[in-house]
Amino acid sequence: MHVMFLELGVGFNTPGIIKYPFWKMTAENPNAVYACVNLGEAFCPDEISERSLCIDGDIAELLKML
Q1: Closest CA to 35 of 21, 47, 46, 22
Q2: pTM attached to this predicted model
Q3: How far, in Å, CA of 51 to CA of 62, rounded?
Q4: Distance from C-alpha of 39 to C-alpha of 24, rounded to nearest angstrom
Q5: Is residue 1's pLDDT more than 90?
Q6: Rounded to an integer, what distance in angstroms lies between the CA atom of residue 63 and that of residue 47?
Q7: Which residues are CB-neighbours of 26 under 8 A, at least 6 positions away?
Q8: How buried is 12 (Cβ within 10 angstroms: 0-12 exposed, 13-18 middle, 19+ buried)?
Q9: Whole-angstrom Cα distance, residue 43 to residue 2?
Q10: Closest to 62 in 3D by CA, of 40, 44, 37, 41
Q11: What is the structure's pLDDT at 58?
Q12: CA-to-CA distance for 8 and 27, rounded, in angstroms?
């Protein structure tokens, strides 16, 4: 099954709640993709970079564009 872990606006204040688990689950599942939208903090580990989409931007502005 394909899955996308979508992270919206999660900063690095509490990475253990969402960010780290999403990275781990993406790394463990070859059918997983990680997507992050965050102004100033959109990044991912090198291990999953080929299956990641990191967008550095304001969520409200991106939703308006869609």
Answers
A1: 22
A2: 0.90
A3: 21
A4: 22
A5: no
A6: 28
A7: 5, 32, 33, 34, 48, 51, 52
A8: exposed
A9: 21
A10: 37
A11: 95
A12: 19
